[in-house]
């Protein structure tokens, strides 16, 4: 089984006055794992439902594996889908749930049994085939939903927050497993999540959405290292990047604004800051949060709230004044008006 | 000491409810059973123990078999039709359309009306000559009809009224059950290639089974319990053609004042309903999936 590429062109969706999606263009390469990431209400689930055919777009085109499927019903799009609630049929056994699609498509009984055995072994469900979904744990139910999607051997699989009902430990295990499953079977995955950790750890490509628009499309590393907008900067990272006004950085801020010729905001990741006696910033500590492996020091840089990640053993007390250093590449410039990333002129050194 | 006091408390708390249920349900039932073993007191002749004589009379009573047969036809005719109609109406008003609330209300209206009022409305429909049905049929040149006065059509005419009255009531249960089914199930099935009919047969219908069991038990009970409309429409006639078991019990006990025989008929009715309800539980048990 190999994946099919998904191409969305100018997808929009509106309910009366409400514009849920506005001119979405996304390319999902065949066989890739693409995450649709965004806060709740940003339209990512609606977009997924438009790809699946369960929802009709108000405008635009959906192409799957090179074919225009915009007008096709859900079952003619050659894809499978896993729902947030799993949508298992409560009155059917695990085996019947998994083979439901094969039965409706009249796959011969012998082949159904053969494929069921394979999928059940793959997902570790072999011992539970005769149980009802209500007799399974949340994690097992999740696997049954996966089984139902996997057994159809479709080139495209859509998932709508499939892990959000699991506890943290299980979620981590399932992340690893899902990624391995997708890579070994080779289907194209379009995965909706509001959890940036899921997107960053699993996806080849992350589509960050905000208020019905695409904010940034990038691989996880680029999304983390070079956020294109302040929204992306504030969404990615735990805790996310902090955005400081130019005034907070004093002379450094003024120099950068002069060099780029516009009003700026500055992005600094808490983990990029470090203590350095010759460093350019002064932070007054106001508190701290011990997290075990490390700690977050909260304080003020030039009057603005700021956070710094430090090793857990070295938590400074409130009131202390710290001199902080930062690698020049870790200071991100954003246009204060549009929120878009600004690249400083080449050769410009932010710290004198 | 503590345990003993809890025991007293428990009984004290359920005593009022128990007293009521015994006073108005269990004791009368037992008294009926007891009464069915005695003769009816007439004039100076007091009631005396007759054993199973009343039951022997019952077996040889052609009217009893007639009304029992009528009741069987009535139940078999009204229950499936009203339930199917209820499900169809529920499916119809479960999907969004303009004026949905109005349609729901319209379907439910017959339930709100007392059966006596319903019977009066239908009496007008059925009236020979100038009733609604005859007026409509008259447009097509048909002559007068007398559905209620005809031995062949009196029972079907009564059944139509019952279906009209019951379907809306059952619809409410089906509608509630339909709304409890997550829409994702149908969506998941749709993606797996299931059409509307497959979704209905393999998902909706099985998930409605608990409701179907509940409704069918209620329907069976109602088929034996509701006879108000017979008083208005036919009075059981002509020649008992539209009489049902409970109506016959009423006539025997309170029109002919043959109370012992009335008690005997009541015992049979009670036993029959217990049997039917228990039977339905066993019949449906394997097919019902409870959450």
TrEMBL record, chain A:
SUPFAM superfamilies the record matches: MOP-like, P-loop containing nucleoside triphosphate hydrolases
An example of a Pfam family matching this protein is ABC_tran
**InterPro entries in alphabetical order:** AAA+_ATPase (IPR003593), ABC_transporter-like_ATP-bd (IPR003439), ABC_transporter-like_CS (IPR017871), ABC_transpr_MalK/UgpC-like (IPR047641), Mo/tungstate-bd_C_term_dom (IPR008995), NA-bd_OB-fold (IPR012340), P-loop_NTPase (IPR027417), Transp-assoc_OB_typ2 (IPR013611)
Question: Which UniProt keywords are given for this protein, alphabetically ordered?
Answer: ATP-binding, Cell membrane, Membrane, Nucleotide-binding, Translocase, Transport
Domain ABC transporter positions:
6-236
DNA damage as UniProt keyword: no
Q: Name one GO molecular function term.
A: ATP binding
Which segments cross the bilayer? none
Q: Which family does it belong to?
A: Belongs to the ABC transporter superfamily.
Query: What's the name of the protein?
Result: ABC transporter ATP-binding protein
Organism encoding this protein: Thioclava marina
TrEMBL record, chain B:
> Where are the membrane-spanning stretches?
7-27, 72-93, 105-125, 154-178, 199-221, 260-284
Q: Which residues form the ABC transmembrane type-1 domain?
A: 68-278
How does the record classify its membrane topology?
Multi-pass membrane protein
Is Membrane included in the keywords of this UniProt record? yes
Entry similarity comment: Belongs to the binding-protein-dependent transport system permease family.
Q: Where in the cell is it found?
A: Cell membrane
Instruction: Write down a Pfam family by its short name.
Output: BPD_transp_1
* Record key words, sorted: Cell membrane, Membrane, Transmembrane, Transmembrane helix, Transport
Quote the CDD domains the UniProt record gives.
TM_PBP2 (cd06261)
| Residues spanning the signal sequence | none
Task: Give the main localization category.
Answer: membrane
PROSITE patterns, alphabetized = ABC_TM1
Q: What is this protein called?
A: ABC transporter permease
